[in-house]
């Protein structure tokens, strides 16, 4: 028997945020081990209000940049506030959903959210997505009441988070049934176009929501239009949508505003 201790718990650096989230956003772990990367990461989870007093199972949405996903106290300018949006949508009759937020790796973000090598270093995105699909997702499904099929498992993110979400649904089309691609940083990884083109047959049953704003620049809009044309060349596939917003900027308030449309799209 070969027993190996990765580390002692008192040797791990536990980062405590200088803010707190709402009552039904909880910390799953302050230092969840990522074996594919040999790193630790803080993981958050949003549970619908009905979760506590029911036995039902819920769809799950995985989102990147966990530090900026939920509404914080004190309030911040750089947050999506997806918990607040989801609470409001549920009150209006929308389906309920669990949302898992994975903190980004600070200085490693540019590598972890890119599956390809770049001027910022060797891409770690493939290992990061393998962690989500093969380590974190099974843990969440074991610890929480979830609907585990592909049609009830989604992934979403913005900027680099949009890039890695696009790669994730292509890499694991039988794990992630839908993806929210907000203002994706395709400019950093042009190889993504070839990858998606080569895997189109694997994505025929998946749903992709693309969104960008004109105020993000012509290159951003052109890149997203290019991806849309690859995914939906004749424009007939209702599972692939593209929202181009005249006033859209590369900022959290824009993604906050467009999140309800994506939320509705998941279960349409």
TrEMBL record:
Q: Name one GO molecular function term.
A: hydrolase activity
Q: Which domain of life is it from?
A: Bacteria
Signal sequence: where? Answer: none
The coiled-coil regions, if any, are none
Q: Which UniProt keywords apply?
A: Hydrolase
Q: What's the protein here called? A: Putative alpha/beta superfamily hydrolase
Q: Which species expresses this protein natively?
A: Pedobacter psychrotolerans
At the highest ranks, the source species' classification is: Bacteria, Pseudomonadati, Bacteroidota, Sphingobacteriia, Sphingobacteriales
């Amino acid at each position: 028997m070969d027993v190996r201790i990765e580390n002692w718990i008192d040797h791990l650096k536990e980062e405590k945020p200088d803010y707190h989230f709402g009552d039904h956003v909880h910390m799953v772990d302050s230092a969840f081990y990522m074996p594919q990367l040999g790193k630790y990461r803080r993981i958050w989870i949003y549970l619908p209000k009905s979760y506590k007093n029911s036995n039902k199972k819920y769809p799950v949405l995985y989102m990147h940049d966990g530090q900026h996903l939920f509404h914080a106290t004190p309030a911040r300018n750089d947050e999506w506030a997806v918990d607040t949006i989801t609470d409001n949508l549920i009150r209006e009759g929308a389906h309920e959903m669990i949302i898992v937020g994975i903190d980004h790796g600070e200085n490693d973000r540019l590598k972890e959210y890119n599956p390809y090598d770049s001027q910022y270093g060797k891409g770690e995105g493939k290992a990061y997505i393998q962690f989500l699909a093969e380590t974190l997702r099974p843990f969440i499904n074991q610890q929480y009441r979830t609907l585990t099929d592909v049609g009830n498992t989604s992934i979403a993110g913005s900027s680099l988070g949009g890039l890695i979400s696009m790669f994730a649904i292509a890499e694991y089309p039988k794990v992630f049934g839908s993806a929210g691609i907000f203002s994706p940083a395709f400019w950093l990884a042009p190889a993504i176009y070839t990858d998606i083109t080569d895997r189109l047959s694997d994505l025929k049953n998946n749903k992709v929501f693309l969104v960008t704003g004109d105020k993000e620049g012509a290159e951003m809009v052109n890149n997203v239009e290019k991806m849309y044309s690859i995914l939906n060349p004749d424009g007939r596939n209702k599972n692939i949508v593209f929202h181009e917003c005249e006033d859209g900027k590369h900022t959290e308030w824009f993604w906050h505003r467009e999140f309800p449309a994506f939320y509705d799209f998941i279960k349409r």
